[in-house]
Amino acid sequence: MQTTEGKVVxxxxxxxxxxxxxxVALRKLEADPRVARVHLVVTETGGRLLAHELGVSGxxxxxxxxxxxxxxxxxxxxxxxxxxxxxxxxxYPVDAMLVIPCSMGALAAIASGLSNDLLSRAADVCLKEGRxxxxxxxxxxxxxxxxxxxxxxxxxxxVIMPVIPAFYHQPQTIADLADEFxxxxxxxxxxxxxxxxxxxxxxxxxxxxAATPEPATVHNERSPRAAGKRIRLIExxxxxxxxxxxxxx
Length: 249
Description:
By secondary structure, the protein is α/β, with parallel strands linked by helices.
């Protein structure tokens, strides 16, 4: 149900590892002119996650600006305990909801229709109203309980999208991996991103994929010396150096 002013998107953040993904998603939603409003819901463990992995903590109202690195224009925070908030009702116009990262506990609550907090209630509303709900699960390995909950949520209408990075776009940094995963997640709710990698098939005899980025700034530049590059975090800290196949182990 898209509004005339633009999309209204709910972004849920739980305590599963992957705070960087939530940060990238929020930045893309804020920058996207097709999005009119973002409702950010952070669970208690999600708040602990942001503090631990990104060093983001403090007044809940300041969380969007701290995650973005600039004042939020379209993002507002809703307390997870406020089950009477606007997004808890099907009469409120929401176009889609993403839970990034989504813990197995949140998945269980959504799959069972528990609705005991705002995040699970908002997700339940998306399912009952036939709206897009994307659950970016971040855990491994999966138990039978996890798999059954995924199946139950998927059968109810959710998109089950585990955080599994792709590598055929030849990522050079952790930021590249996060960026492309979020591009795929946003595509699920009808927001194809500029610069997103698009597979065009592999030419016979060619070593590289024939890839076509969307027009606009390409976030994932490819280099023929990828094997010798370093993978870095957004802040520029070295995580590990790939082995150069020409130099051996």
